[in-house]
Amino acid sequence: MAPRKESSCCNDIAAGPEASRTIHPQAVAGDLTLSPEWIANGHEIAEEKEDHTVGPNSKAYGSLNSGASSSASSAIKGTTELLFQSPHSHPLDPLSAAEIQVATETVRAAGASAEIRDGMRFIEVVLYEPEKDVVALADAYFFPPYQPTFFMPRAKGGTSVLPLQLPSRKARLTVYNVCNNETTIWTVELTEVHAVTRGGHHRGKAISCEVKHDVQPSMDAEEYALCEATIKAYGPFKEAMKKRGVENMDLVIIDPWCAGYYEEKDAPNRRLARPIMFCRTESDCLLENGYARPVEGIYVLVDLQHMKILEFEDRRYVPLPPPDPLRNYTPSHIRGGLRSDIKPLQIIQPDGPSFCVNGYYVEWQKWNFRIGFTPREGLVIHNVAYNDGSRGRRSVAYRISFVEMVVPYGDPMDPHYRKNAFDAGEDGLGKNAHSLKRGCDCLGYVKYFDAYLTNYRGGVEKIENAICMHEEDHGILWKHQDWRSGFSEVRRSRRLTVSFICTVANYEYGFYWHFYQDGKIEAEVKLTGILSLGALKAGETRKHGSIIAPGLYAPVHQHFFIARMNMTVDCKPGEAANQVVEVDVVAEEPGPHNPNHNAFFAKESVLHSELQAQRDCNSLSARHWVVRNTKTVNRVGHLTGFKLVPGSNCLPLVGPDAMILRRAEFLKHNLWVTQYHPEEQFPGGEFPNQSPRVGEGLPTWVKQDRNLDEADIVLWYVFGVTHVPRLEDWPVMPVEHVGFSLVPDGFFNCSPAIDVPPSEHQVNVNETDDRFSSKTTLPTLSIRPVAASSKL
């Protein structure tokens, strides 16, 4: 028997799944049952008594916020005035720099030995998101939107209780140990992180540690750099490059792609990379497009744990492509110079923006939500709701984000057939986020949010301006002109855009959530960056790609994105009252009901269970899916809902036995629907890197075939583009757009945009006036809402 490796977990923490298992409280409509562990662990509570109301002027509300709703006064009762202990951070706020530092230091200190502690590498430190009842409690009494009438927690036995403080925040850490190739998941309670501001000390407590067997976590930027240096220093590689006319290793660029899983030797008992190589032409030009000269025919397998070459083979000699004169894209390299006839376009908001921000809480045009950020997903939107006048704050979604993306390539040649990147699970979208710049990435009055992440060694790094939020004019919102009177009404559309942009090797991806005044939410991905190329011998062609320049071709490929949306349409905290309906527009059969053969109608089919809810897009029938509340109706008696409207889409073109589908079986359908479970976060499982497991994640979860008739619903929408590269995609690809929309469907009683005020009409330029020539600087256009006239 092989000797047992020393575990990374500390000796006094029980390892294994039982140690980190969380008991989730049972939810009942209208109120929530508190976890008995929460109460037993000493969290203060107040029993509900009769006849004594805590009003908005009491100490309890004075410590919350002076703007807390006075409607709360009838919701809480007690024998004495209650003093809520308002925490510094909302339970869903991203971890602060101090919290990340406390978490990493706590885990390192809990290591079983000095060797284990020295070998710890911190892949990810994220907020351990609490149970939904904790979030509901925070939103009721401690943070905006302050909704005590929606939440009265109840302990076991039916006794009404009111906690006076929220439980401590927790961090979840993914730690890789280079000493023993072991991956562990730690949970750290952040007990006194903010006490340092009062002269105290940061404190954390490791409460669980679980060893994850047969997995490899995502790769890190430090590993990329070390892998590149290891290959450049390897003698046989230098000889292979010398054969291609390159002796200066400073010209060589190496992208250490994850190995994937294609055969037994790719198993996760080793931490592997299969790098792809390129070569610049000019050593003194760091801005040169190095991706323009791919190095073909060299095969390398690298052990990232020990940073050594396991396999090397110069399999096929292909000369380096000649330098392409059109390869570069910086201003100094543009042949013919830059355009000189483009005039400035200024976005001016003289009165400031229409949104309000309180920490990570955002309000805009009746929308409100919280902003989050993780190293894997990047931007996360929490608690999306709409303030609907007398109907109050109406929930739409609990959590929405982009949880994975997969990029399969269609060339069967090595190394291109191995290009099947899981850019979220193998690299991390948030870890690769940009620091955005005003005037370039975002225009207008911009609110930025910084992001804090751990680095490989456990330090804290800040991505300044990682998230951008701003308003955009979006053309006409609605318009009608009466042909009899000539009277016209028109409204301009404005949207709130929240976004981040990341670079994964050669490609850039912009992820956007747009909120509209008509109640619509749009998800959009913008694809740009540089094509991943291959080299051709003289006279060689390749049908699996497009020739971009002499000796260069770009393989055909696909980009798939997976959005995870925990929908809570019209649900109060604790309610599980949603269902999903598939809608197809179909032609009526010929007969007495269709005598003129012109009839068609919307046919509805309820998706009752998870196995039934594996669905594909169908543009021929205008297929869409509606998430409906099973208890709430609109003014015509129909169930309220939001519908998912697909944009352009595709399915994977690889064969059914392609190895990529072992790890990405979730790509087989455009829509999956599951019942909410807090541990089901990622469609390919938590560790897709080198995963040998078939159908892990969504395909396995839905085998439970859980009921969806009245449930806490999660939509998993898979959407993508098939990219047949063009010459016009070179040297940098113009942005391609793909996405979908969440549109109210019977959610409102009429158009929610009807109350948008008209804009002030301004004539800046008389187009028939020849005083304004092409060389004249035009006045700035502004759009200012004005009060609606009382006259028609």
Automatic annotation (TrEMBL):
<protein>
    <recommendedName>
        <fullName>Amine oxidase</fullName>
        <ecNumber>1.4.3.-</ecNumber>
    </recommendedName>
</protein>
<keyword id="KW-0560">Oxidoreductase</keyword>
<dbReference type="Pfam" id="PF02728">
    <property type="entry name" value="Cu_amine_oxidN3"/>
</dbReference>
<comment type="similarity">
    <text>Belongs to the copper/topaquinone oxidase family.</text>
</comment>
<dbReference type="InterPro" id="IPR000269">
    <property type="entry name" value="Cu_amine_oxidase"/>
</dbReference>
<dbReference type="GO" id="GO:0048038">
    <property type="term" value="F:quinone binding"/>
</dbReference>
<keyword id="KW-0479">Metal-binding</keyword>
<feature type="modified residue" description="2',4',5'-topaquinone">
    <location>
        <position position="507"/>
    </location>
</feature>
<dbReference type="InterPro" id="IPR016182">
    <property type="entry name" value="Cu_amine_oxidase_N-reg"/>
</dbReference>
<feature type="active site" description="Schiff-base intermediate with substrate; via topaquinone">
    <location>
        <position position="507"/>
    </location>
</feature>
<dbReference type="InterPro" id="IPR015798">
    <property type="entry name" value="Cu_amine_oxidase_C"/>
</dbReference>
<keyword id="KW-0186">Copper</keyword>
<dbReference type="GO" id="GO:0005507">
    <property type="term" value="F:copper ion binding"/>
</dbReference>
<keyword id="KW-0801">TPQ</keyword>
<dbReference type="GO" id="GO:0009308">
    <property type="term" value="P:amine metabolic process"/>
</dbReference>
<dbReference type="Pfam" id="PF01179">
    <property type="entry name" value="Cu_amine_oxid"/>
</dbReference>
<dbReference type="InterPro" id="IPR015802">
    <property type="entry name" value="Cu_amine_oxidase_N3"/>
</dbReference>
<comment type="subunit">
    <text>Homodimer.</text>
</comment>
<feature type="active site" description="Proton acceptor">
    <location>
        <position position="423"/>
    </location>
</feature>
<keyword id="KW-1015">Disulfide bond</keyword>
<feature type="domain" description="Copper amine oxidase N3-terminal">
    <location>
        <begin position="217"/>
        <end position="319"/>
    </location>
</feature>
<dbReference type="GO" id="GO:0008131">
    <property type="term" value="F:primary methylamine oxidase activity"/>
</dbReference>
<feature type="domain" description="Copper amine oxidase catalytic">
    <location>
        <begin position="345"/>
        <end position="754"/>
    </location>
</feature>
<dbReference type="InterPro" id="IPR036460">
    <property type="entry name" value="Cu_amine_oxidase_C_sf"/>
</dbReference>
